[in-house]
Amino acid sequence: MNPQYDIPLFKLVYNDSVIISTHWNWSTFKIHEKTQDRMILEVLYNVSPLYHLDDEQWNEYKEDITAHNKIWSTFSKQFNIK
Question: Are 78 and 72 in contact (CB under 8 A)?
Fold first, then answer.
């Protein structure tokens, strides 16, 4: 999660597509100290948030999820290139 080791050009462009990869077990909330950073990157790179939730986690994170969804979905719709 250290931005020093991030390679933005790798994620830049290839044939008019954004290149990015996320792993199915790399939830937005996986590293609690980095949740805000993950959410910002999801918006900046237009990557869907990834959640692994049960009832307990939903109750813990539902306010964060709904607030982030409002930001992410609004931003995503504005910059969705078809």
Answer: no
Q: 17: helix, coil or strand?
A: strand
**Average pLDDT of each block of 10 consecutive residues along the chain (82 residues)?**
62 57 76 88 81 91 92 75 52
CA neighbor of 57 nearest in space, from 65, 47, 46: 65
Strands (E), 1-82: none
Rounded Cα gap, residues 82 and 70, in angstroms: 21
Output the pTM of the full model.
0.63
Residues 6+ apart with CB under 8 A from 12: 18, 19
